[in-house]
Design brief:
Elements lengths: L2 H6 L9 H7 L11 E4 L4 H4 L3 H11 L6 E7 L2 E6 L1 H15 L13 E5 L14 H16 L3 E5 L8 H12 L2 H22 L2 H15 L3 H25 L17 H9 L3 E4 L2 E4 L9 E4 L7 H16 L3 E5 L5 H13 L8 E4 L4 E3 L14 H19 L6 H18 L7 E3 L1 H4 L7 H21 L11 H11 L1 H10 L4 H20 L7 H25 L8
Parallel strand pairs: 4-5, 4-9, 9-10, 11-12
Antiparallel strand pairs: 1-3, 2-3, 6-7, 7-8
Helix pairs in contact: 5-18, 6-15, 7-8, 7-9, 8-10, 9-10, 12-13, 14-15, 17-20, 17-21, 18-20, 18-21, 19-20, 20-21
The structure holds arginine (ARG).
The site of arginine has 9 residues, from helix 12.
Length: 560
């Protein structure tokens, strides 16, 4: 139930609408003060009375009963205590009937949201720097779908550029098919690094020629390029599988090769294209930005040119309501420029393009090194985390069946959660030990709470179990109910602010409330009505926590 609405509709202030009253209702920081409060200072002018007198009068007029148990006036605030029993009944009924759809809605029906994320670079390492874009994008993808939107996941592959000429050249000089076939992405990367370290002037020239050959459709050069692309994609897909990441489109930069000329023509037609030192640019000086480079003096297109073509293509293909770019904040300027150019081209939908920027992830044991060849591969971070998770689980519960499977969910979950728990723009230092602590604000803590809830329910099921009992909840039960009630709002906030951390925070808060309830209240040994109520509460918590973790892309082990 929307309690703000409920309360607002029962308060009458001349000249102030119920909507306005609902907007002014807040949640007091200390639950002891009440569940909702209306500050009356705002109304003093209209009513020509002191806030204290207004609160007093409104309190006397308020029809206590129904969902509101008590109204009190304190220092100009009108405080409300809602009927916890009724709230609990209503929230539990909702969760137990909606189950894995609790928190879902159809508010996005008919609207498409394109999400550009992960966007790997072919033949380059898939490193820790790609973690955030991958898991943030994956979470947003699920969140928007959960809210009824149609999400389109796009991997805007970095598969265009002179580096592929270099790679072919390196392969021709130093590589062989067997080794590359065997070593996959690592072998390709080694060749690329070797080129950057050792290429002679002569080889640089050759590399440019190979790039030209790719561009002009030469069969051998293109076959090699496609092969490198295959190898990279089959490699990253194994990691996407682990992280529960999917895409609807792998249309990368190369896909726009034949779609850029129309953009250039349109820019020219609209008088936006300027010549500068032989290059073609769009001048953005009056918007306080450097020019957006469209064509280099040799006629070659740029990253921005391809993004302009891609945005137009996506609008035409998907008719998106929003198009999100989950890309590091280092590209802030790039996206500001691209969005501005589209705006200048009179694309009224330019306002629907959103750069979802995020901060950097580094490791505790030495920041991510970007020196040539010294990168931390995401694969290794995941592997190490799963290994450590295995050790932690083995120590806690050596008798556990399928430890390896649980360790996989716990380890992968910890890596994902590490990138999703904080506000996305913050830089993160990932610590294996902290991420795998059972006592912190971690995914393991939430997963363990789920296993605990499930184990209670299983025991109850074995003994035969009734649910739905209605009692007046104690403080820790009421706090858990309130937390559970907040899940749909957390999902909506996550979508509105492109901030999956809202859901991660919910999960930790809800797990903490569950564990307090678990310690404070007997469940299986309680009297009949209490037992039934507490089992319903346990089941509801398990649904809400499972839904939260699932939206984040984190698996929920049955036992831990
Ligand atoms: N491949 C790019 C990089 O690694 C990210 C691409 C982001 N998407 C886009 N449409 N520009 O920096």
């Amino acid at each position: 139930m929307d309690y703000k609405r409920y309360i607002a509709e029962r308060i009458r202030i001349d000249g102030v609408s119920a909507d306005e009253i609902a907007e002014n209702l807040s949640v007091p920081p200390d639950p002891a003060m009440g569940d909702y409060a209306l500050p009356c200072f705002k109304f003093a002018k209209i009513l020509r009375k002191s806030p204290v007198a207004i609160a007093e009068q409104l309190k006397n007029e308020f029809p206590v009963g129904g969902a509101v148990e008590e109204a009190s006036a304190v220092n100009g605030y009108l405080n409300f205590r809602i009927d916890k029993k009724q709230l609990a009944e209503e929230v539990l009924e909702r969760i137990l009937s909606q189950k894995d759809r609790y928190g879902a809605s159809d508010e996005g029906a008919g609207k498409t949201v394109c999400i550009d994320y992960s966007s790997v670079n072919i033949a380059k390492p898939f490193h820790i720097g790609h973690l955030s874009t991958t898991v943030l994008g994956g979470a947003l993808y699920r969140i928007f779908n959960f809210l009824g939107y149609k999400a389109v996941g796009i991997n805007h592959l970095g598969d265009y550029g002179t580096q592929f000429g270099k790679l072919i050249c390196a392969y021709k000089h130093w590589g062989n098919r067997e080794e590359v076939e065997k070593g996959g992405i690592h072998a390709i990367n080694d060749l690329y690094v070797k080129f950057n370290n050792e290429a002679t002037e002569e080889m640089e020239k050759e590399a440019r020629e190979y790039f030209r050959l790719i561009e002009s459709g030469d069969k051998e050069a293109n076959d090699l390029f496609e092969w490198f692309k295959e190898l990279t994609l089959s490699y990253v897909k194994t990691i996407y599988d682990k992280l529960h990441i999917t895409f609807d489109s792998y249309a990368g930069e190369r896909f726009y090769t034949d779609k850029m000329q129309p953009v250039v023509d349109e820019l020219k037609e609209k008088g936006l294209l300027k010549e500068s030192e032989g290059a073609k640019i769009v001048d953005l000086e009056q918007y306080g930005m450097p020019p957006c480079l469209i064509l280099r003096s040799d006629g070659a297109s740029l990253y921005a040119t391809r993004d302009l073509a891609a945005a137009i293509y996506r609008k035409n293909t998907y008719d998106f309501y929003k198009c999100l770019y989950v890309v590091a904040y280092q590209q802030n300027l790039h996206f500001k420029q691209v969005f501005k150019v589209l705006d200048l081209m009179d694309k009224e939908w330019a306002k629907d393009l959103v750069h979802v920027a995020y901060g950097m992830v580094s490791l505790e044991d030495g920041a991510m090194s970007t020196r040539k060849g010294k990168v931390v591969w995401l694969e290794d971070v995941i592997k190490k985390c799963v290994e450590k998770a295995y050790a932690v689980i083995d120590e806690k519960n050596p008798a556990l069946e399928n430890k390896a499977e649980v360790a996989e969910k716990v380890g992968v979950g910890a890596v994902t959660f590490g990138a999703l728990y904080n506000n996305k723009i913050k830089d993160i230092v990932f610590s294996y030990d902290k991420a795998l602590s059972f006592e912190g604000e971690t995914s393991v803590y939430v997963q363990y709470t789920c296993a605990r809830a499930r184990s209670v329910l299983e025991k109850a099921a074995a003994e035969g179990y009734a649910r739905g009992g209605s009692i007046k909840p104690c403080a820790s039960e009421a706090e858990l109910v309130k937390s559970l009630d907040g899940f749909p709002a957390a999902v909506r906030a996550a979508a509105e602010n492109y901030e999956p951390s809202c859901i991660a925070r919910f999960a930790v808060d809800c797990a903490q409330k569950f564990n307090k309830f678990y310690i404070d209240c007997k469940i299986l040994q309680a009297g009949e009505a209490e037992r039934a109520f507490r089992l319903s509460l346990t089941e509801a918590a398990l649904h809400a926590l499972t839904n939260a973790l699932t939206l984040l892309g984190i698996g929920v082990p049955e036992k831990m």
